[in-house]
């Protein structure tokens, strides 16, 4: 009896914290999504939030923006990261340690600081316009603002993904390439026939992380464009925050949170179906 | 008893006429004040005067910025009243969400000495509407925002535009064309926020007697005729190519660079222009906003704030003394008017001799006469607890309508009304 209780006692601190800070909020937000929280005190109303979400134009805008970032930024970033990883892995490159650190460094910079810098860079009188000779009002143009968000995200996360992919590259046995060379395969063929298939699990890992990160995206659009102009860069994360903490409608904010969770689930299942067959 | 009554009445009379305050060196403590931009600076300017009466109260003003003050205040209330200052600034339009959702987050000012209800007559009645729930008063009126046009005399002169002849928005557009012509398109006649804010729509709607909600706060009215006209005018101005688009910071950059000839805002913008462009002294002037049609209303209100005392404050007495000094005395209010152009809502202060003085910065125009003269014509409008939600929807609707995504202003506002109704649970008024 005593022996069987011991492991649970060791687990107890974790379980208690998990219950208090994870399980309870998850349950509480589910309950909140079935309450009308626009009145004080909140009252039960099963349909007020779930009935609203599908017909809410602002929610669809946020969803569209999030998916747009997902389908443009994530593939772009992962392609860049793979190319970068291959370059960083090359025997021809000198000072590899320095370059690896340099490309990883953006992740270390505080989000608030680099968001402020990007806002300045893309100001109409900013460095980007000055350097390119353009006269774009980036932040206040719907397309420009979205471009800034995508550029910013790519700047920050490409190096991070490249380092993960680099680790994957280094675990590919060298003899595969040697054998391929003896058989007369070009570097290009080696890349597509050996490198990419071997990287599949690592790329899948990066893809899942990036998709979940994008679905939760909040910091950059909040700090750089404040979700604007209009709702042009309002992501699901920004919309959730607005409902929760600006409109103090925690019921509807919880509903949005659950909608995001459902979406993440759907995306994960699709990915596993598409890319995870062999494993 | 009778004597007491007479004494009380006499006391009330002195308070009402002089609007001065008794000091108290025994009141001690340190209080923190949250505010934004010019408003924060104006409160800071009142500390020396306050400390003459209350030498042992230390006041610390923090300038958080407008949106951050609101966001942190709501977050603090939502968290049960933590992380809040002793004195909290809130815009009248945005105030009701606090009292409606968090009735225990702020101090009922009637429970303090003297009770806020004894100060009622010293302010216009409309300033109390959004600050009062039943017989509880949660904040004290501060300034109001009668809308006027701030214009560059030299640029108007150069283009041969006489502001006295600008009576309607069509006149304003014609003036904008002449200014563009005279300056080779270098100078725009105004700056409209499109996509970041809908303040021009709100000012024009208010002028036309329309707003997001009715004054009973029980129905959505954003698709009524006054609002439709307002939205049509905003698009007309933008389509004419005579205005620049930009937010708060862009507008300041533009008038500093001299690329904009007019700013339309609540009169509190006076201080923003004067303190940001001291080198343009003497070049500016003021005229009333143009009307929607000949002979129409040429007045509106934008902004105007109040001060509240969070229930979590440990120095309520000191906080209340500071609030009453800054907002409830002629001295406090006129200091803020002089230094930062905040338009007093304290009635005694609007009758202060300072109001009639010519202002050197404004080409010796008696601008406060012009500005305060419009106050009586401002149609009433109420923010309600859903102000921010309605505003977010309207910002988007305006941007979409300007971009040509709706066949008409009415169609755009019908869609907005639908969304606001869905977001708030309030019906659309017939």
Automatic annotation (TrEMBL), chain A:
The lineage of its organism: Bacteria, Thermotogati, Deinococcota, Deinococci, Thermales. The chain crosses the membrane at residues 7-27, 67-89, 101-122, 142-169, 202-219, 250-270. It holds the Pfam family BPD_transp_1. It comes from the Bacteria. Its main location: membrane. It is found in: Cell membrane. It comes from Meiothermus taiwanensis WR-220. PANTHER family: ABC TRANSPORTER PERMEASE PROTEIN, INNER MEMBRANE ABC TRANSPORTER PERMEASE PROTEIN YCJO. Residues 63-271 form the ABC transmembrane type-1 domain. Keywords: Cell membrane, Membrane, Transmembrane, Transmembrane helix, Transport. Belongs to the binding-protein-dependent transport system permease family. InterPro entries: ABC_transporter_permease (IPR051393), MetI-like (IPR000515), MetI-like_sf (IPR035906). This is Binding-protein-dependent transport systems inner membrane component. It is a multi-pass membrane protein.
Automatic annotation (TrEMBL), chain B:
Keywords: Signal. It comes from the Bacteria. Residues 1-18 form the signal peptide. Pfam families: SBP_bac_1 (PF01547). The keyword Signal applies. Gene3D superfamilies: Periplasmic binding protein-like II (3.40.190.10). This is Extracellular solute-binding protein family 1. It comes from Meiothermus taiwanensis WR-220.
């Amino acid at each position: 009896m005593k022996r069987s209780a011991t492991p649970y006692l060791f687990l107890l601190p974790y379980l208690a914290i998990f219950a208090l800070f994870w399980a309870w909020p998850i349950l509480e937000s589910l309950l909140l999504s079935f309450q009308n929280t626009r009145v004080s005190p909140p009252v039960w109303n099963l349909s007020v939030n779930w009935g609203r979400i599908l017909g809410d134009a602002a929610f669809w805008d946020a969803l569209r923006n999030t998916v747009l970032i997902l389908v443009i930024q994530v593939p772009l970033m992962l392609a860049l990261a793979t190319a970068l990883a291959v370059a960083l892995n090359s025997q021809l490159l000198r000072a590899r340690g320095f370059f690896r650190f340099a490309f990883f460094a953006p992740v270390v910079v505080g989000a608030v600081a680099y968001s402020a810098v990007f806002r300045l860079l893309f100001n109409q009188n900013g460095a980007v316009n000055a350097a390119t000779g353009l006269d774009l009002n980036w932040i206040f143009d719907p397309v420009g603002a979205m471009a800034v968000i995508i550029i910013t995200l790519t700047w920050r996360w490409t190096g991070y993904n490249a380092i993960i992919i680099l680790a994957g590259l280094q675990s590919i046995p060298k003899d595969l390439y040697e054998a391929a060379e003896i058989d007369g395969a070009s570097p290009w063929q080696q890349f597509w026939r050996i490198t990419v298939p071997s990287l599949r699990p690592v790329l899948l890992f990066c893809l899942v992380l990036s998709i979940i990160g994008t679905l939760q995206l909040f910091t950059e659009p909040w700090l750089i464009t404040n979700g604007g102009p209009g709702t042009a860069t309002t992501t699901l994360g920004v919309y959730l925050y607005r409902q929760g903490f600006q409109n103090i409608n925690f019921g509807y904010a919880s509903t949005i949170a659950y909608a995001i969770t459902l979406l993440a689930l759907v995306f994960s299942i699709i990915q596993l179906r598409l890319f995870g067959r062999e494993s | 008893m009778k004597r007491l009554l007479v004494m009380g009445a006499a006391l009330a009379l002195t308070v009402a006429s002089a609007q001065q305050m008794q000091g108290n060196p025994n009141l001690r403590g340190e209080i923190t004040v949250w505010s934004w931009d010019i408003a924060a600076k104006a409160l800071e300017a009142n500390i020396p005067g306050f400390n003459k009466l209350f030498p042992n109260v230390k006041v610390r003003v923090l300038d958080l910025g407008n949106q951050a003050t609101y966001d942190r205040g709501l977050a603090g209330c939502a968290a049960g009243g933590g992380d809040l200052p002793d004195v909290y600034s809130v815009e009248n339009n945005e105030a009701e969400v606090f009292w409606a959702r968090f009735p225990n987050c702020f101090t009922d000012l009637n429970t303090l000495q003297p009770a806020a209800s004894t100060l009622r007559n010293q302010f216009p009645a409309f300033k109390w509407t959004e600050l009062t729930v039943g017989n509880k008063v949660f904040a004290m009126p501060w300034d109001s925002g009668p809308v006027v046009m701030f214009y560059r005399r030299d640029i108007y002169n150069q283009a041969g535009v006489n502001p006295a002849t600008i009576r309607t928005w069509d006149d304003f557009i014609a003036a904008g064309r002449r200014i563009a012509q005279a300056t080779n398109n270098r100078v725009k006649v105004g700056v409209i926020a499109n996509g970041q804010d809908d303040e021009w729509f709100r000012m024009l709607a208010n002028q036309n007697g329309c707003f997001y909600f009715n004054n009973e706060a029980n129905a959505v009215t954003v698709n009524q005729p006054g609002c439709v006209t307002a939205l049509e005018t905003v698009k007309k101005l933008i389509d004419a190519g005579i205005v620049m688009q930009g937010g708060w910071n862009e507008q300041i950059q533009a008038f500093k660079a001299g690329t904009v000839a007019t700013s339309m805002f609540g009169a509190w913008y006076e201080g923003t222009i004067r303190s940001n462009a001291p080198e343009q002294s003497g070049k500016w002037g003021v005229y009333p906003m143009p009307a929607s049609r000949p002979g129409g209303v040429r007045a509106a209100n934008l902004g105007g704030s109040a001060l509240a005392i969070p229930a979590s404050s440990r120095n309520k007495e000191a906080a209340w003394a500071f609030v009453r000094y800054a907002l409830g005395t002629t001295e406090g209010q006129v200091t803020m008017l002089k230094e930062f152009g905040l338009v007093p809502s304290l009635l005694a202060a609007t009758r202060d001799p300072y109001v009639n003085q010519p202002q050197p910065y404004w080409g010796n125009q008696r601008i406060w006469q012009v500005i305060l003269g419009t106050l009586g014509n401002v149609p009433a409008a109420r923010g309600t607890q859903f102000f921010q939600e309605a505003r977010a929807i309207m910002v988007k609707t305006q941007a979409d309508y300007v971009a040509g995504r709706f066949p008409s202003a009415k169609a755009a506002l019908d869609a907005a009304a639908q969304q606001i109704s869905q977001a708030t649970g309030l019906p659309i008024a017939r």
